[in-house]
Design a protein that fits this description.
alpha+beta, globular, disordered N terminus
């Protein structure tokens, strides 16, 4: 999938189906009715549950998108995640714990992705946001954490900003 802006977007791969094989009809006139609507709901819920990625903290993390960004003058691959439990309030996942999750995501998701697509990025950026935010947009009420890595011999080497 390519977005119509200066950032190329790479598509995340998933084997989860959004609807049953052969599709689902939701009109009663074709004999599907409420049962088909329920099947679509269950399939969509299953696809969302399968999209959650395991991380050391156990928090729910979902890949939002992957951006191929050459605007810094070199290729940066940005893996953007939704992690609704991050924040600074008591009971939320703080930056200290989220950095462990981000390093894990770099190692287990970014490295294989970059290898599979034969990319040679100067940096891999892992970001987490407590809600969806369009790339480059300001969202003062949103918690966002970022880490930058360079890949060396299929290893994520932390690069402080």
């Amino acid at each position: 999938m390519i977005r119509a802006n200066r950032h190329r977007t790479a598509c995340a791969e998933s084997d989860a189906q959004a609807a049953p094989a052969g599709g689902a009809c939701v009109s009663r006139g074709r004999g599907c009715g409420i049962a088909a609507g329920f099947l679509v709901f269950v399939a969509a819920a299953t696809a969302r549950a399968e999209a959650l990625l395991p991380v050391p903290s156990g928090q729910p993390v979902q890949l939002a998108d992957v951006l191929l960004d050459d605007n810094p003058g070199e290729l940066w691959v940005r893996f953007r995640f939704i992690a609704p439990k991050i924040g600074s309030a008591v009971g939320q996942i703080g930056y200290d714990v989220a950095t462990i999750d981000m390093e894990h995501l770099c190692r287990t998701l970014a490295v294989p992705y970059v290898d599979k697509h034969r990319l040679e990025p100067a940096r891999v950026i892992i970001s987490m946001s407590d809600r969806a935010v369009d790339f480059g947009m300001s969202a003062p009420d949103t918690t966002q954490f970022f880490e930058a890595y360079r890949l060396e011999n299929s290893r994520c080497i932390w690069e402080g900003f």
